[in-house]
Amino acid sequence: MVDVTLARKSAPSGTFSWLFARRGRQGFDWSDALTYGFLLLGVLVMFTPVLWVVISSFKTPANLSEFPPTVLPYSAERVEVEGYAQPLPLFEVAGEDGEVRLLAQIRRVGLNAQMIDPQDVEAGPFTVPVASAVPLRQVNFVLENYTNLLVGQGGDIWRYVYNSLFITVVATVITLIMNSMAAFALSKYKFRGRNVALLAILATLMIPATVVLVPTYLIVAQLGLVGNLWGVILPTVATPTGVFLLRQYMLTIPDELIEAARMDHASEWRIFWRIILPLSSPALAVVAIFSILSRWNDFLLPLIVLNRREVFTLQLALASYQNENEIRYDLLLSMTTLTALPLALSFIFLQRYITSGIASTGIK
Amino acid sequence: MSTTNWVSRAGFGLMSLPARVIEPVMSGVQRLIGIKRMPWFFLIPNLTAVMLFALLPVLINVFYSLTGSDRLYPQDRPWVGGRNYETLFDCTNYLDPSTCSRDLFWRALGNTLTFVPIQVVCMIGIALITALCLNREIRGRGFFRGVFFFPVMLSPVVVALTWQWILQRNGALNGIFSAIGLNPVNWLVFPNTAFFWSVFVTVWAHMGFYTIILLAGLQAIPRDVYEAAKMDSASNWRVFTKITLPLLRPVLLVVFILSMIRSVQTFDELYILTGGGPGSATMLMVQYIYEIGFAIQPRNFGLAAAASLLLGAALLVFTAIQLHLSRRAQNG
Fold first, then answer.
1. Do residue B170 and residue A69 have CB atoms under 8 angstroms apart?
2. Which segment of A70-79, A189-198, B191-200 scores lowest on mean pLDDT?
3. Which end of chain A has fewer beta carbons closer than 10 Å to its terminal beta carbon, N or C?
4. Which H, E and C letters describe chain B, residue by residue?
5. Can you name the CATH fold of B90-331?
6. Amino acid B325: pLDDT
7. What would the pLDDT profile of A236-256 be if each residue is shown by its tens digit?
């Protein structure tokens, strides 16, 4: 609050003028404090939800169902006791004289529990009221959810991973080749109908995929591709933004290179493949990144086309876990983490490409 | 730079193998059709895909909207003329969805008309504040930019499930509430809170995208303009309204149009977060189209096509109005 009153004195235009102050000043003042305050609040709001999911994915199902939730994953401490096959959970038991003893629980019977002293097995089991026993817990990041997900469930997850990978890789490769071929034709040749073709491709920018949902499904069905991974790949390969971005880039490649190659009797395809494509690699990288992003995250088209569990993508499988009657949060959380992980990792390396791609074209 | 080299080396290394097979074939094609027709050869694959999956669907959509029955294939569908549109608009009182024969359509329309302005204005407002903050001389700008941007990379499914995990009855938010002595709230069960969180989550997920565009716009404003203003000892607020905003207007317009087009099409996040519920409180237009065309049996493709054509037309009109207004503002 002190900051604001100071602000009123120095800048009569209002409480929010700190926002509009521009960089290029010396020193640290109240406006910097507000900026950092806002940004740190942003970090909190943007980051903690995801961090919370990741932490939660290391909790045991019992720990997950607790309310209020514990911040860190806790699980019961267990101990091996001679004569018992499974490790037994440890409890702190307050005796009648107020002395606290560490006991291992064998089984619970109603309001009582059969416990045994791990230090003194010979004394044999004795009965303790449950009310006086507090489970001994420790912070423990359990990997159980991940092993259940990756090994259990009949290994279904690997099928979803394969489906998602197949769609992403194949669609991206086709997108790159097809879009750069079109961009090459539209940037390096003069021919009748060129502008019409460019217009036809760019006009599709105005047709959102959600608006043509029904006919897209029909065409996929006519091609016999319902329930087939290709039914998700083909409708998405011709992206107008990709053609546009590549064409703009190829326009900057000097025509002399092409003419020189023609002198050497290079075929047109060779010119395209050996000269134009390598020179366009920065633009290709941007198009590739966005293609990978949107194919990996795609939901609506797979939802209507991929109608069997065997062809589900990771996203569909994730959503289907949530739709089932009993929500298995243990599986859901570990799978959410694993689905987001590849993109989070690649983001660290590719941030500059992505942000510059967005800033220059507004594609996504 | 090193990333470029690595990416391109790996990419073209892989490509050179099939290239040896493809190149002779392609020079054969060139000999066959002549160099004059080669540009069309390069264009055909893309044009085919564009025709098949973008332009043709628009025509088919019109046909679907004029035919009835639950059959998928056009030859099985009887012509009904404008009856699908009549059904959608069949209301005794347009302000009260429950008097319409397709009340869900009107509820979805009403929800979309409430959701889009609120979501777009909140998102652009917060994105602009963030961009202004990031445009200042601060430490760790790259880190902060990354923090605001990374939810854009997450899939809508992951975003929705993340927030559902936080907002559920026994979730983290209610944990915090009970820790500070407030009663836990069933956030996604009441229409108003569900609507609030729908807006919040979609803003959370997408604002980074627009922040990046706005930041690029801010950085493109030449510095000497600001220095001149500083000479004239203009106040910060004055600099913002008289210099920054006018120079940022083209970018702001792009951001508005982009975000509006995407906001109208919101589906994935809300489908998973709220399922359109409670009741139909957060069901937007695209979900209605999905439900009526694909989820509810018998599938009503005609109605879905009619609704999506109306949606597409509305998008075009809004975009045109926005462009027109901005042009007038720039000229005036």
1. yes
2. A70-79
3. N
4. CHHHHHHHHHHHHHHHHHHHHHHHHHHHHHHHHCHHHHHHHHHHHHHHHHHHHHHHHHHHHHHHHCECCCCCCHHHCCECCCHHHHHHCCECCCCCHHHECCHHHHHHHHHHHHHHHHHHHHHHHHHHHHHHHHCCCCCCHHHHHHHHHHHHHCCHHHHHHHHHHHHCCCCHHHHHHHHCCCCCCCCCCCHHHHHHHHHHHHHHHHHHHHHHHHHHHHHCCCHHHHHHHHHCCCCHHHHHHHHHHHHHHHHHHHHHHHHHHHHHCCCHHHHHHCCCCCCCCCCCHHHHHHHHHHHCCCCCHHHHHHHHHHHHHHHHHHHHHHHHHHHHHHHC
5. MetI-like fold (1.10.3720)
6. 78
7. 888 888 898 899 889 989 999
